Automatic annotation (TrEMBL):
It comes from Ruegeria faecimaris. It is found in: Membrane. It is a multi-pass membrane protein. One of its GO terms (cellular component) is membrane. This is Predicted PurR-regulated permease PerM. Belongs to the autoinducer-2 exporter (AI-2E) (TC 2.A.86) family. It comes from the Bacteria.
């Protein structure tokens, strides 16, 4: 009888211990992410860049039948040169923008007055009360600090990428050797192949879509004669990795500069409606069509991920929030024990289970 009285309490104690252990592990992970940000941010960027390089080199092999070493070299060169140019443009023009920020602040009142007749006094008062009070010098310093930090870390990121590419093929062999059992090693290698393929597809397609958006936006900016066109194009590219809010910010900043720079309202309207329509069309039609179910994430999860990674890693975390969360979702979806969590993270419970083409390797 005492035994039967004690048995019902065992599952409860077990559940409580699981909850306790899970809370401890999650707390340690979050603390580790925050405390180790200086080390983890360059490493995370290197891993995502490595995935992009592999996707590009595989595409080169498929199109040209080039040797693997030549395709890898081409992928490394294109991606790292492009990354360096992006960081150089941001660092250089952010410095110029920070130096001239006082000029823009003094001209903003005049710009608000120019649109008074167009939108009415109520909206003008709202713009004056909310936008004029924004500390633009703080924004400029924050962007300048982030761009300079990335430029300073470029060598470290390049070093990580070089070693990751050097161990790409050896890694599969080490996995099979570490597994001990050949069957277990082969199954684990197949899971890695599926994860690698999904990540390559997401990062590659998202980068391609962002390049299209940034390229068209740059043509518009340059045609209008907008100052710092290169910077706004680069920010458009980066901000497109942040869903919904990123595309809004990508239109808002250049539109505000156009409002201040030009005496007429025309360039401002062209950027707002032209680039805004472009962002809407790509975000709602081209993006889902090319990504398919790779970004089948809950909308609440997207906002939650944005807030979490921004809190932990700052502005860089905002840019990396969705790619990192998508990576986690994809990895969880290919691990049977974690697949229920991936289903909860998804929008409708459906996961893209597409695997790698035959012969694809990590």
């Amino acid at each position: 009888m005492p035994t039967s009285d004690q048995n019902p309490s065992m599952p409860n104690r077990l559940r409580l211990s699981v909850v306790r252990d899970t809370a401890i592990v999650v707390s340690l992970v979050v603390l580790g992410l925050y405390a180790g940000s200086a080390f983890l941010i360059p490493l995370t960027m290197a891993l995502l860049i490595n995935v992009l390089i592999i996707a590009l080199s595989d595409r080169v092999i498929a199109l040209t039948k080039a040797p693997v070493w030549l395709a890898n070299l081409a992928g490394v060169t294109v991606v790292l040169v492009g990354l360096f140019m992006i960081m150089y443009i941001l660092g250089n023009q952010a410095t110029q923008f920070a130096r001239s920020i006082n000029t823009y602040e003094s001209q903003f009142d005049e710009a608000v007055n120019r649109i008074n007749d167009l939108v009415g006094n109520d909206i003008t008062a709202f713009i004056r009360d909310n936008l004029v009070n924004i500390d633009m010098s703080f924004v400029a310093r924050m962007l300048l600090g982030s761009a300079t930090s990335l430029l300073n870390q470029f060598f470290l990121i390049s070093l990580y990428v070089a070693f990751l590419m050097a161990e790409r093929l050896a890694f599969r062999k080490k996995i099979r050797m570490a597994a001990g059992d050949p069957k277990t090693g082969a199954e684990f290698a197949l899971v890695l192949d599926a994860i690698s393929f999904s990540l390559q597809r997401y990062v590659g397609v998202k980068t391609f879509i962002s390049l299209i958006t940034a390229g068209i936006s740059y043509v518009v900016f340059k045609t209008l004669g907008l100052e710092y066109s290169e910077t706004w194009a680069v920010l458009t590219f980066a901000l497109n990795f942040i869903p919904s809010i990123g595309s809004i910010i990508a239109v808002l900043f250049p539109a505000a500069i156009a409002l201040v720079q030009f005496e007429s309202i025309g360039p401002f309207l062209i950027i707002v409606f032209g680039c805004g329509t472009l962002q809407f069309m790509i975000g709602n039609f081209l993006d889902p069509a090319m990504l398919g179910r790779s970004l089948n994430m809950s909308t609440f999860l997207v906002i939650l991920a944005l807030m979490f990674w921004t809190t932990v890693w700052g502005l860089i975390g905002a840019f990396l929030s969705v790619p990192l969360t998508v990576c986690i979702l994809i990895i969880f979806s290919h691990i049977p024990a974690l697949r229920p969590i991936a289903i909860l993270m998804s929008l409708n419970g459906e996961l893209g289970d597409e695997g790698p083409p035959s012969g694809n390797t990590v």
